[in-house]
Amino acid sequence: MHFHEKPNTYVTNVEIKVSDLHRSLKYYQDVIGFTVLQIESHKATLTADGKTALLTIVQPETVEEKTNLTTGLYHFALLLPTRRDLANIITHFRNSGVYFGASDHDVSEALYLRDPDENGIEVYVDRPDSDWTWQFDQVHMVTEPLNISAILEEGDGEWHGLPANTVMGHIHLSVSSLTAAEEFYTKGLGFDIVTRYGGQALFISTGRYHHHIGLNAWYSEGAPKLGENQVGLKTYTLRLDNETQAAEMKENLHAIGATIVDIDGGFQTEDPAGNVILLKF
Questions:
Q1: pTM here?
Q2: CA-CA distances (angstroms) from residue 90 to 14, 39, 164, 165?
Q3: C-alpha distances in angstroms, 111 versus 16, 99, 106, 162?
Q4: What is the DSSP string of 92-111?
Q5: Beta strands 72-79; 120-126: pairing state
Q6: Distances (CA, A) of 47 to 141, 171, 207, 231
Q7: How confident is the model over 17-39, as pLDDT tens digits?
Q8: Cα dihedral sign for 46, 271, 280, 260?
């Protein structure tokens, strides 16, 4: 989990818009295993450890369904501490009749789901980073079938919700231009490119993680940004290391023409695809 600690720049919280707060609350508690940290009439903050906000769900006053392809959330990804935890949540999903996809990415083993509003979710576990294959500055990643039976052998059938030390492992975004996204995230925010998938996807990180952010234009090349009241991504939060880094980021963002707004505990910006990012200490 050292990839999700300072001085790395990593995702701490994802905020999504949903069409029915109560329905989504039930899903994220009963199926995914979150507990509620704080709840208001139109907003709920969810946690795994009882103190750290990982996911925030918001119901806009006027909700609009997504009727066409837009930029925004491809999926957010919850990183479990151990393979046993992954085994136990697989058993829970099966016992609950929950449909999920599954992939082996060589660096990680992952499950994929969609919430009631079709927001994408990944639940995964990393293989030890000593087993990852690097060629210079590029990490080897694949998408192969997951050996679920081998994972289940490590389970104990005990599922009591998300383990306390679950973290927001990464976020994967749909963007309208991969070239513009690359400039923003590398020159503006200082991320390193660690994997390219042809000309339509790239994976970026700090501290040689396999990715803190995924970016793709598979279905969103030239697409408009998500509407203000449409279900999907509202914001996501990146952890800043220190004031010097923050000042340098602001300078770099300004140089490429990105918007910067000071907020409590940091600042806010927006990538070229309209994804709103909160940068906080």
A1: 0.97
A2: 23, 28, 18, 18
A3: 20, 10, 14, 14
A4: HHHHHT---EEEE-SSEEEE
A5: parallel
A6: 29, 17, 25, 21
A7: 999 999 999 999 999 999 999 99
A8: negative
